[in-house]
Amino acid sequence: MILNLLTPNTMTQRRDELTNHDYDGIQEYDNDLPPWWVFLFYLTFVFALIYLLNYHVFQTAPSQSQEYAMEMEAARVELAAYEASAAGQLPISFMEKETDLEAGKQIYSKNCVPCHGPDGGGTVGPNLTDQYYLHGNTAEDYFKVISNGVPEKGMIPWNNTLSRREILQVASYIQNRLHGTTPAQPKEPQGTLHDKSISMLSKKPKMNAN
Ligand code: HEC
Known about the structure:
This protein folds into 2 domains: 2-86, no CATH class; 98-202, Cytochrome c-like domain (Cytochrome Bc1 Complex, Chain D, domain 2). Helices cover 49% and strands 2% of the residues. It is an all-alpha fold. It starts with a helix and ends in an 8-residue tail after the last helix. The longest helix has 23 residues, at 35-57. It is built from 9 helices and 2 strands, in the order ααααααβααβα. Strands 1-2 form a two-stranded antiparallel ribbon. The chain has helices at 2-6, 9-12, 35-57, 64-84, 98-111, 113-116, 139-148, 164-178, 196-202, and strands at residues 132-133, 192-193. The chain is elongated and about 105 Å long. Heme C is lined by residues 111-112, 114-116, 124-126, 133-135, 142, 145-146, 150, 153-156, 158, 170, 174, 191.
């Protein structure tokens, strides 16, 4: 019904008149556009008007760029809150990224070589490449012994010198790169046997430590 109103009678009555041109034998009618099509066409006017008033004239709703800025700001606030909370600290788990392991290697050669040897074979400190551990082989165990040291046995506490991230990097370097290699002069095993499967099991589900 509404469609009929949109299409004046005078127009609908003109039917199937040919336009007076001919392109390579192709002729065409000069009929009116279908009413539903015309209706949609007018609808786009209405939509555009509402859109214009809403977003640009009265600004009752935020534009795309304002929305983007609002979301970014909300995310920034959320991230800051998260990083300030305990859960936002780097999780104690082994890192696997090449850059972290490389950083761990640098930390190791600068600080740990005198007592654990360049290849982890051990001198004053124990062999870090074998399956025997004095203090366990989970990420938590490494973190604890490197942070707090064992001063009475000659292992220095590193929590004043190295950051949380650096301790995790060097621990990951030991576990992922030194452990399981064969050093030139390995020190005799010390501590208890932990085979690799235990260390795999004790790995926490990975989170991206950035
Ligand atoms: C001054 C010597 C010394 C330095 C330097 C040193 N360590 Fe140690 N480390 C030791 C000694 C000694 C032990 C054995 C402690 C014990 O007997 O309980 C040890 C034990 C460890 C253990 C535990 C091994 C196990 O079998 O459970 C880890 C891991 C370790 N050190 C990592 C490091 C890292 C990483 C660094 C460098 C940031 C480092 N150490 C620097 C002397 C040292």
